[in-house]
Amino acid sequence: MLHLRRLSRSTLVSFAGLFVGIAGLVIQWFADRSKFAEALPPFGVVFPPGILFIIVFGLLMLLTARWWWHPFFGVFIAFWIVGVGGLAGKLTPNLTSPNAGTVAGNVVMAAGLVLAFIAGVLSMITARRTQRAVRSKPERVHQR
User: How far is CA 90 from CA 41, 80, 84, 94, 109, in A?
Assistant: First the structure.
């Protein structure tokens, strides 16, 4: 079983960023549920589908934690929601909305996902460098 103590600090920060991203989506949902009316309702409840995507990618990150590249999943979903969503013009309407809750939720979501992205990239770089350093160390022969 995976223990959270084994995860690097930057990986834990990346998970925290994903959690903050979910909190931002929840804020947006409470502020204006009609914005998510187009989402497919699972079990008859309409809620931001981004929550499910972030949870799934966070679980993938956790399940692959033994490999140095495990934060890729958090980095990818953060880039997809904030980066691609920004380029596609999906975030701008929420940032310029007259509803203060929608704006606040969008800012919280984007800040959390940017944090997850940066921490995830740093986690991968650090883990890869550590892995290379361990491999390049010559094995010492124990003499008695």
Answer: 20, 11, 9, 8, 13
**48 CB contacts (<8 Å, ≥6 apart)?**
25, 26, 28, 29, 36, 39
CA 130 from centroid of its chain's CA atoms: 23
Q: How many residues does the chain have?
A: 144
Q: Assign 16 to helix, strand or coil.
A: helix
What are the tens digits of pLDDT across the range 60-78? 999 999 898 999 999 999 9
Q: Which amino acid is at 32?
A: D
Instruction: With beta carbons less than 8 A apart as the criterion, state whether 32 and 102 touch.
Output: yes
Predicted TM-score (pTM) of this structure: 0.84
107, two tokens: 């800012």
Let me know the angle formed at the C-alpha of 72 by 49 and 77, rounded to the nearest 5 degrees. Answer: 20
In whole angstroms, what is the distance from residue 105 CA to residue 47 CA?
14
